[in-house]
Write a structure and sequence with these properties.
263 residues; alpha+beta; Arc Repressor Mutant, subunit A; Beta-Lactamase; 2 domains; six-stranded antiparallel beta sheet; 42% helix; globular; transcription regulation; IclR family transcriptional regulator; DNA-binding transcription factor activity; transcription
């Protein structure tokens, strides 16, 4: 029962379980057995089998008989392609692919979901030293270039800051220490037009990002260039910041308003 005392709609639990399985297979970026799915989601084997069978019937999940494992099916691919068309991401992809080709580095388009930054689209670096990531990956706003780029150009930055503990949870030794440090960083991001993640989310990785702004100047998404620290000295950061800003401006017309970022 929820806080209002009302019962959730019929079928809600089944839907949540199905979505949980799809997200798990997306995050795992591979295959999982039924027992592994059940264990990771704390489901019974029977429930897992029923939900996976229903997803398989619609092509959202596929079975590999050789390994007796499951992975995302062709239906999930078609659904993702439809979402890209709806969100204009197929038009934005060439932009980040161009930056990827010019710099050799990984480039993301991210959106905000609540207190997290979510990778929507990625052009992966082909250089030997790189940080592996995939669409669907989620990270906290306060420790990422994408999160700071979107927060700096949002209506709820103050309420978000107020919701954080005074001492921010440390993800690395470089994570900003306090809420006041983050507030100052957001102000600097607004002033210079781009954000910086100085190994705050992942040790050894620096990121530079810019908000994809609507006509009100509010961020609907962010463009982020992600670089191993050894290839991104501080004096190169403004160069990548300018690239991120230009890319965000180029992408802005492709992204429909009020459809992506969800606070």
């Amino acid at each position: 029962m929820n806080q209002t005392g009302a019962q959730p709609p019929a079928g809600t639990q089944a839907i949540r379980r199905a979505l949980g399985i799809l997200r798990l297979l997306m995050d795992e970026d591979g295959e999982l057995t039924l027992s592994a799915i059940a264990r990771k989601l704390d489901l019974t084997p029977g429930t897992t089998h029923r939900v996976v069978r229903a997803l398989s019937a619609d092509g959202l999940v596929a079975h590999n008989p050789r390994t007796d494992s499951y992975h995302l099916g062709p239906g999930a691919i078609l659904l993702g392609q439809a979402a890209q068309r709806v969100h204009g991401l197929q038009l934005a992809l060439p932009v980040i692919q161009r930056i990827n080709a010019d710099t050799g580095e990984s480039v993301n388009i991210t959106i905000r979901e609540g207190n997290e930054s979510v990778v929507l689209l990625r052009a992966q670096s082909t250089l030997p030293l790189r940080f592996e990531q995939h669409p669907g990956a989620r990270f906290p706003l306060y420790a990422t270039a994408s999160g700071k780029a979107m927060l700096a150009n949002s209506l709820d930055a103050e309420s978000y800051l107020a919701s954080l503990p005074e001492q921010l949870p440390a993800l690395t030794s470089h994570t900003l220490a306090t809420r006041d440090d983050l507030a100052l960083e957001l102000a600097e991001t607004r002033d210079r037009g781009y954000s910086i993640d100085n190994e705050e989310n992942v040790a050894g990785v620096r990121c530079v990002g810019a908000g994809v702004l609507d006509e009100r100047g509010l961020a609907r998404a962010a463009v982020v260039i992600q670089v191993p620290t050894v290839r991104l000295p501080e004096d190169r950061i403004p160069e990548l910041g300018a690239l991120a800003i230009d890319a965000a401006k180029e992408i802005a017309p492709f992204l429909p308003p009020d459809r992506l970022t969800r606070y």
